[in-house]
Amino acid sequence: MLVTNALVMARRGAALALTLALAGCSETASPPGPVPPSGGSGNAGGAGGATSGGASGSGGSSAGTAGAAGTTGGSAGSAGSAGSAGSAGAGGAGGTGSTIDDVGPEGDGDITIGPTYAKDPNLTDLGNPEGQRFEFSLPHEGSIFDGTDATLTDPVNNPDWSRNITVYVPALYVDGTEAPILVIQEGQIDNVSRALDNLTISTDPLMKLPPFIAIAVANGSGRDGADGKGSERGLEYDTLSDRYTKFIDTEVLPAVLANPEIKAAFPNLAFTSDPDGRATMGCSSGGAAALTMGWFGGTFRRIITYSGTFVAQQNETQPEAELYPTGAWEYHSESELILNSEKKPLRIFLHASENDLGADSPEEDHHNWVMANQRTAEDLAAKGYHYRFVYSLATNHCDGRVFDQTLAETLSWVWRGYTPK
So what's the pLDDT on residue 45? Predict the structure, then answer.
């Protein structure tokens, strides 16, 4: 694994070694693959299942029985390995209804880039057919995030604030089909649009993109012009809950479908409800929001984060702080949400810059972006996730050079294996 800060190994070496030993894998394995725990657990059932499968092993020295197939088509979990004396092997779990793991490991693991950078031609105008772009404003009145949350301490600068929504419908989208979608926090709609123009027609199976609809959602900083604890942006992005996902699902997506200009161009526009066909991306706290949408929301499974704010940025006065006192730091440290939770059907891209925010900050400050992203990558590897972690040399927080060089390949990687249902 890539380690650029000695604090990572000093803080976590023993605990991570124990976790990896229990999982039956080594930290240096690259790319990582799913590894069943020892002592009798069966592997998870394949795509399509809705229920847990399988009887437990009957004897401490016998192998666990294979998990039964899920009720909607998941393949059976494989048999668990032999349990230690006196303990029964557990049966395999049934399928989740997801095919997110039904792809090879190409592109997975840790990658270092730089110190020189160039823009990927797939993010430029190559003369290919272009899609259509739409913009509209979404008012704050009546919203889940209406600017009146009791934990907001930054004063209101603009009582009439709203947020901008930008939608890009690629040229290959066929009106009336249920489109996959990408929800974007913190910009990059221009690069994403060019990637759609150029890669939806690619003949390279590792680069080809599905014709997803890109939806860029501005944060609520129009309320107070701030971005830290006590701000509207901080409330939306840095809170560990499903609130932001509900906002996207119940307010933003219906507003896109109801927009008069969009309806005139695409009267039968529809979005897939399949979480495998829903991606989200963001930078900084927008990246933290993307991971939280996948982790807590359940309706998005393809995650892209650049310079993700997996640090203690959540407002301590929010109710969620009772469960997660250090906010997104809890994903990889303190409560170790990733290591201590059942593996979720997620495909996750991470990035950190060499000179990212707090790169030299001590662990106890809970504000070192490099450490936070490295730890998150380590934990994803230990749990057998399909993950990709890019570490960029000689770059800064949310560095545009990194987006320009990597975003096309990142999009292709995160959408790999997607097939409309």
Answer: 34
Q: How many CB atoms lie within 10 A of CB 14?
A: 10
Residue-wise burial string across 89-113, b where 16 or more C-beta atoms lie within 10 A, e elsewhere: bbbbbbbbbbbbbeeeeebbbbbeb
Average pLDDT, the chain: 83
Cβ(232)–Cβ(145) below 8 Å? yes
Question: CA 47 from chain center: how many Å?
Answer: 20
Which residue has better confidence, 85 or 390?
Answer: 390
Distance of CA 125 to the CA centre of its chain: 28
Helix (H) or strand (E) holding 21: helix 6-23
Q: Using CA atoms of 92, 94, 97, 99 in order, give the dihedral in degrees to the nearest 10.
A: 20
Q: How many Å apart are CA 236 and CA 233, to the nearest integer?
A: 5
Q: Where are any strands of DSSP class E within 332-405?
A: 347-355, 386-396
DSSP readout, 184-241? ESSS-HHHHHHHHHHHTT-S-TTT----PEEEEE--GGGTTS--STTSHHHHHHH-SS
18: CB partners within 8 A, 6+ apart: none
Instruction: Using alpha carbons only, give the angle 286, 288, 289 rounded to the nearest 5 degrees.
Output: 60
Phi then psi dihedrals of residue 393, to 5 deg: -75, 150
CATH no. for 109-414: 3.40.50.1820
Q: Would the pTM count as exceeding 0.85?
A: no
Q: Per-residue DSSP letters for 22-34?
A: HHT--TT-SS---
Residue 131 is classified by DSSP as: -
- Maximum C-alpha span of the chain: 68
